[in-house]
Amino acid sequence: QVQLVESGGGLVQAGDSLRLSCAASGHSFSRSAKGWFRQAPGKEREFVASISWNGGITDYADSVKGRFTISRDNAENTVSLLMNSLKPEDTAVYSCAARTSGWYGKFGSRSVHEYDYWGQGTQVTVSS
Fold first, then answer.
1. Contacting residues for 126 by C-beta, under 8 A, at least 6 apart
2. 110-to-11, 36, 60, 91, 104 alpha-carbon distances in Å
3. pLDDT for 21-58, tens place per residue?
4. What is the CA radius of gyration of the chain?
5. CA distance 36 to 49
6. Which residues contact 66 (CB under 8 A, 6 or more apart)?
7. What are the φ/ψ torsions at residue 30 (nearest 5 degrees)?
């Protein structure tokens, strides 16, 4: 059974920082890309960031580039998202996702349809 569990969400003020973590189990963690997505009320789930299987390639949505940093620790089966300079518009449920291991799954994607495993999500609320 593949499980992804996010943690680290909470209520913060604009300008604050927050680190989200995702712990994986029952999964070939080191062999597939990981991604972070978010969904705000009334909006579709959107891409935030992705990281390749070995951490060598990262990708960020324009809205978070320069503020957010995705990283992974394959030894501990975790992927993190450091969020700096948070804005109210960052308020959303943040979910981590994993692709199926394999050649194509080694690299990240901006599409929610190309990830096979999802965590339950963690709420991030940024006040003005």
1. 12, 13, 14, 16, 86, 87, 88, 89, 90, 91
2. 26, 9, 9, 19, 13
3. 999 987 677 789 999 999 999 999 999 999 999 999 99
4. 14
5. 5
6. none
7. -75, -10
